[in-house]
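question for whoever is on the cluster today: can someone run the full assembly for these? two chains, 622 residues total. i dont have access anymore since they changed the login thing
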Amino acid sequence: MSTHRYNPVMGFSAQSMLRAALVLTIAGLALVRPASGQMRIDVSGVGATQYPIAIGSFASEAPLPKDVADVVRGDLARSGAFRLIDPQATLSDSANLDFLALRARGADAVLGGSVARLADGRYDVRYRLSDVVRQASLGGASILATEGDLRLAGHRIADWVFEKLTGEKGIFSTRIAFVSRQGNRYRLNIADWDGENVQTSLTSGEPIISASWSADGTRLAYVSFESKKPVVYVHVLATGQRIQVANFRGSNSAPAWSPDGRTLAVALTRDGLSQIYIVSADGAGVQRRLTSSSGIDTEPRFSPDGASIYFTSDRGGSPQIYRMAASGGDPVRITFGSSYNVSPRISPDGKTLAFVTRRDGRFLVATKDLSSGVEQVISDGGREESPSFAPNGRWIMYATQAGGRDSLMAVSIDGRVKQRLTSAAGDIREPTWGPLPK
Amino acid sequence: MNKVQRLLIAASCAMLLAGCGSTVKLDENAGAPIEDRNAAAAAQGAGAGAAGSSSQVASVTAAETTDPLSDPSSPLSKRSIYFDFDSYTVRDEYRGTIQAHANYLITHKTRRVVVQGNTDERGSREYNLALGQKRAEAVRKALSAIGVPENQVEAVSFGEEKPRSTGSDEAAWAENRRADLVYQ
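^ ran it for u. tokens below:
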């Protein structure tokens, strides 16, 4: 019934599994304050195929501050790629499983686990995945986590299960950055991919836009208007250190990291109209100017291999997406078919362009296969902005509106599954998806 | 021919010679803005008197009203220039406003102005930031063409980030397609 690939690991007993367990420790983020304001997630649609999986309650001797199994369930269900089956039982990672009963409930796989509090206050989270049809273990592991990281432990388990059963990297332990606005308070927030665990890295009385993660996930570049004009900053998340990397005459905006994290492509107007330049990530200033057009050039993005830069330009009379060598040179126009195609983003494998296109007066997110040229519109709101690929390339998050309020939407690359993130605390916008954790 | 008129003619010649990319052309029939030199001199005198006698401190208020920048009947009171959708062409109706601000800046060398470009909320924030810059830049070039030194004017953009009108209809959008002259 399932077309998903997986490779059973045969002949492992639960005990040998535990002895061979991979131990992961999870480091929390320092100096990022928790933010108030509940986030809400609404999921619609299902994937083309759904893998049926049973996830029991994890065994525990005492009540836990966080239900880890429930975090795993939430992640897998929201992915749209799984159908959850309730085994109506606590299933330990080391328990003997009644495969026939699980099969009768329709499960192809089963996840069990246990959580034990250690003497040092940390928790030992163990889990094991089994193939119900073959009645064999697919593997398992142990994660050591502080109380505050139990949720992250659940995300890590969901990633592991997702990759085991679909062959693709999971994104459940990734983080997103976005901007919230309440009146004149703007906050640059970091959250888990599902909007939980919100932490604020910057609060300002002026707008913040265009946040962008460095490839290693330690720094954010963004545009802040705190000095009454747009200035580009690099912000070290762990320390709160901020570096002005572009503060020239005129406007400074649209930062995009080079894959090696040493430079950023930015849009500057210091020589007149908006043009694209390379600046140092350490604040040492402009390294070179890349474009020389008589119009607007902005929104640069490096290709994942660092060889090309995609950008928006109105040099042809309307804003369109172009590609040029990362060293500059003659650009090639990439988008057609609308008089407004902007905000290029390149998938992690470099093969797909996501962008915002205006069609019949509506602003929609579309993808374009860069080899075949085939385009697909994947949003239907009409007020879309700022698309961002998940690091596994399977999701695109963007800003839109719901009930007069700015909200975020994550849509599967095939357009079938949508997750809307809203905040009770106000507008949320400018999402950018962080890299896979190391 | 007074000083202001001579200045305007000189500025006109400079602008015609420049013939640059500015979208603002000089309208010979546009009314020349008038600066009240006597009022300015009187205000300075009042200010000096105030420094020597505490009984005349109140007259400083009168000096403020004669500053052409704060005179509601002065063409300088107009600080906003509106644009058409997806356009950065300064419309003819703003020639007089731009001329007045150019004259003020030329005769007040220590004053600086920031031209803040704005757009409506539709479309990409970054593209709108660049579009707002283009609007601010069109105004900056128009001032420059009349003879305002570069170091007195900076063009920046707020894009769609600081809307004056927060609605989502054509009236609100039109209000936000704007460049503001903000004196520092």
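summary bc i know u wont read the tokens: Residues 13-51 of chain B have pLDDT under 50 and may be disordered. Chain B has two domains: 3-33+74-183, 39-68.
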